[in-house]
Specification:
Layout: H1 3-33, H2 37-46, H3 50-92, H4 104-131, H5 136-153, H6 159-181
Helix pairs in contact: 1-2, 1-3, 1-6, 2-3, 3-4, 4-5, 5-6
Length: 187
């Protein structure tokens, strides 16, 4: 057994936990304080841990998800890449500007990127449910929770959006724990 068969899934699982914390903790804080520069910073930078986490999730279920799972993973990874940019821009750039300063083209591109993320998230969530490798609750939670999170990203913060952040963090932590506990297949 090579070290990569242990290291890469575990690295992805750790990234999933870091991502969960960077979404959930600021989300919980924002329920009481509203969005702040500090919470925006944590969320905006934390999204960088999404790609390794999703790669680990796909690697965990690839044997059971088939061609559909591979296509769903690809769509999710592309959408996640775009949404990482959206989250970074919303939380570290646009947060500090007046709404009138955001040009219409930028707004349209951010919405289009969010739609790609939603499509990829839904497909990957369906692939997780169909593969039945992950527990059902976080598999469903991934597809539904992150779709709702993307919708709330375009809206003003409310206690509901904070709750969605926390729920998504729980889902990520649960999926990451499943990857961490898995035994790598022998070569």
């Amino acid at each position: 057994m090579t070290d990569n068969k242990i290291f890469l899934p575990r690295f992805g699982a750790v990234c999933g936990v870091v991502l969960a914390l960077s979404i959930g903790v600021p989300g919980a804080v924002e329920a009481f304080t509203g969005e702040t520069a500090a919470t925006s910073l944590v969320i905006g930078l934390g999204t960088a841990f999404g790609a390794p986490a999703v790669l680990a999730f796909h690697g965990h279920q690839a044997h059971a998800s088939g061609r559909f799972g591979a296509v769903a993973f690809a769509a999710n990874l592309l959408g996640l890449g775009l949404f990482t940019g959206v989250a970074f821009a919303l939380n570290l750039v646009i947060f500090f500007q007046e709404p009138a300063q955001v040009v219409p083209l930028t707004s349209a591109v951010l919405k289009a990127a969010s739609l790609v993320f939603v499509a990829g998230t839904l497909l990957f969530g369906v692939s997780m449910v169909r593969a039945r490798v992950f527990p059902a609750v976080p598999a469903w939670g991934y597809g539904i929770g992150f779709t709702v999170l993307a919708v709330f990203a375009a809206l003003p913060d409310t206690p509901w959006s904070a709750l969605v952040h926390v729920a998504c963090a729980v889902v990520l932590g649960w999926l990451s724990a499943a990857v961490w506990r898995a035994r790598p297949a022998l070569a």
